[in-house]
Amino acid sequence: MKLDPAFIWTAFVELLSAVPTTLEITAVSVLCGFLIGAGTALARLYRVPVLRQLGSAYVTFIRGTPMLVHLLLVLFGLPMLIDSLAESLGWPLRSVSIPMIGFVYVAFSLTSGAYMSEVVRAGLLAVDRGQIEAAYAVGMTTPQALRRIVFPQAFAAALPNLSNSTIGMLHGSTLAFAASVVDVNAKAQIVASTNWKFFEAYIAAAVIFWGLTIAIERLTALLEKRHHAYNRGGVA
Amino acid sequence: MIRLANIRKSFGRHEVLKGIDLTVEKGEVVVILGPSGSGKTTLLRCVNFLERPDDGEITIGDLTVHCKRPGKQDVHRLRGKTAMVFQQYNLFRHKTALENVMEGLVVVRKVPKDEARRRSVELLEKVGLGDKLDAYPSQLSGGQQQRVGIARALAASPEVILFDEPTSALDPELVGEVLAVIRKIAKEGITMIVVTHEMGFAQDVASRVVFMDQGAVVEEGNPKELFRNPKEERTRQFLQRITPEAVYTI
């Protein structure tokens, strides 16, 4: 068998139609994961009773199990939960009417939330205690101090980890095929199945993922430049 | 006027403040001296509730806060009446010198931005940093950072400014510029409580000196009195140990 360079291009063009799906899965899981993670991190840092233990259990379970397992658990477990809830509460909702990508969103948001909670925690821990004390001393309330002083600095400190996690979720989104959702990688498999030119199709997929990753890296560098204008320290 | 009554604070089983009473009149500059671990910094941090006292009462002007069960609003109002200058400066790292001074005015006092900027520039010029408005803290020397810290404290027009060892983290040759600024504002009649180890400064700026040891006030009085002939043995010991020049001038 010989490499067919022309088919790489053909596959590449066809795969582009799946890019929005890949980006949607990544964006939803990163954004929802960030919110879940922020909540979990705050509950653990501020030692909120009950929520803190729940948060710790959640983080250790999710990080202790593969992303594919989360998807499968949600895929098979959530419909049962929804249907039994709907039945007992008399809602007209049936789990079959929910598109598969909905389950993917839920599963991957849960996955990313656990990792994000560590990203957020690291960011918050990087902010010196004196910063919030100074904010209090000038008369700010806790929400004002967090919003204006702590979060911007925590965000800057968390950026490298944040981009790492985002790239991880981008690549992890390929697992969505297990729920019959067609992302870039799945599309490559489909495109190649007509003529068995899998290698060419996967090369095209790799190029697309690489390109998307470079875009994320560029975006991070841009944000980092803006947020680190004040930071001339560090060992680097 | 500021009145602290029976301020108590323990960290675990260690009693750091054993019922401190202190009154500071408007315009007074009170310097608190004492060996490390005597509780002077903790006392200062209790005044604006960065440290929550276990017991006692804090009165500033018309506001009295009962420390045992302080209301959130009361703590917030108390902080609105005070300002603090920190040992480690604690400037907002992601904000320029100008933004550091403006921040409290705009966010807390809701002063319009133009007005806040005008006042902040004035204050930074006053502390000799009119040319560093747009510098981030990381681009300033320790002495410059602390002067921004003082400008930030002044911006709030507080009833009292709390200085927590404002020169302890500075290179010796930068101490002078910061003390000069504090002297200047002391002359303007701003009420100040200063924790410091700078004896010379204490002698010529303080209207009153308070000597603390082991969580209690040992002695207080006007600086000439206290430095020349302290009444208490403990004060004498302390002053001898930290002003040893006498030993060398024989």
Structure in words:
Chain A is mostly helical and 236 residues long. Chain A has helices at 5-15, 19-45, 51-63, 67-89, 100-125, 129-137, 142-172, 184-193, 198-227. In chain A, α6 (129-137) packs antiparallel against α7. Chain B has 250 residues and is α/β, with parallel strands linked by helices. Helices cover 40% and strands 24% of the residues of chain B. In chain B, the strands form 2 sheets. Chain B has a 6-stranded mixed beta sheet with strand order 6-7-8-3-9-10, with helices on both faces. A 4-stranded antiparallel beta sheet of chain B has the order 2-1-4-5, covered by helices on one side. In chain B, α3 (97-108) packs parallel to α5, α4 packs across α5 (142-155) and α5 (142-155) packs parallel to α6. Chains A and B meet through α6 and α7 of A and α2, β6 and α3 of B.
Topology:
The complex is a heterodimer of chains A (236) and B (250).
Chain A: H1 5-15, H2 19-45, H3 51-63, H4 67-89, H5 100-125, H6 129-137, H7 142-172, H8 184-193, H9 198-227
Chain B: E1 2-11, E2 14-24, E3 29-33, H1 40-47, E4 55-60, E5 63-66, H2 72-81, E6 82-85, H3 97-108, H4 113-126, H5 142-155, E7 160-164, H6 172-187, E8 192-195, H7 199-205, E9 208-213, E10 216-221, H8 223-228, H9 233-242, H10 245-248
Parallel strand pairs in B: 3-8, 3-9, 6-7, 7-8
Antiparallel strand pairs in B: 1-2, 1-4, 4-5, 9-10
Helix pairs in contact in B: 3-4, 3-5, 4-5, 5-6
